[in-house]
Amino acid sequence: NLKDYAGIGLAAAGLDQARCDERLASAQVRYQLRQAYFQLLYTQEQITLLEQIRKIRQTNAQMVALAYNSGRESKGNMLITQADLSASEADLAQAQRTLRVAQQALNHALGRPAAATGTLNDQCYIPAAPAWETMAAALPNLPQIRRDEAAIAQSRASLQQAWSEAVPNLSANYTRGWTGQTFFPPNPAWTASLNLTWPIFSGGPTTTYFAVAAAQDQLDKTEADKTADLEQLQAAAESSWSALMSAIAQVGVQKQYQDAALQREAEANIEYSNGLLVFENWNQVVTALVVYEKQYLSARLNAVLAEINWQNALQTTLEEK
Predict the structure, then answer these.
(1) Percent of the chain with pLDDT over 70
(2) What is the pTM for the complete model shown?
């Protein structure tokens, strides 16, 4: 009957919802894992960079100290280079403490003991710019939208069930046999019947009317939920796509600044060593190099995190690349 048919639809929609919930959970796990992974990777690269910066600051401090001892540099300039060295050592110590926190965050995401340690043999990459069409093609197939569609199917099945109470139920019965006084009766016999029932008093039209109205309201709600979710997901995807494109562009900009700072630092070292550049100008060039090195590394991390947010907006699962 119609009620049993609607029950099958309810069960099928429930299965679809469960599968969509599984995909949504997978997307959330992927998001957390990738964030923790690349935060740890960034911290490792940051420590390597800060060790290089400390070495630069240490070399410069020693060089200026020698110049001061020989009477060619002022005490104030020597103290500045020593302060820069102390600052680089403090930054390195802070990054080493952060490394432990990042390791624990990844352990938690992987379900490993917090005490587990290790290093990642990888480096932050520069994401490729995704095409705008990728988002438009992905939106209708997102797990959340599929889940909303399953909820709509459930609501429609519930509406069918509500209507089934007002629909007559027709059933047929047929039996066939033989009658007689011997062991193998010779006389065939059969019966057939039709049974029509209409639930007028059990529940009644009033109950059916309100049940149908409630089911229709629920169907309208699930359809509105799908529209709202689609608009929200589209806005989030567009925002994350824009942020990703900006982050990728910023990597290129910071790379140019880094290259320029490296060249200027090499030239300034030669000029300062030969007395062609005053300390203040030379130290500004070195400090600019430190700043641009840090900014370039941060830009690479921001680009990767922006890609992670973009993929999360598209609800990319663990099983997908």
Answers:
(1) 93
(2) 0.82
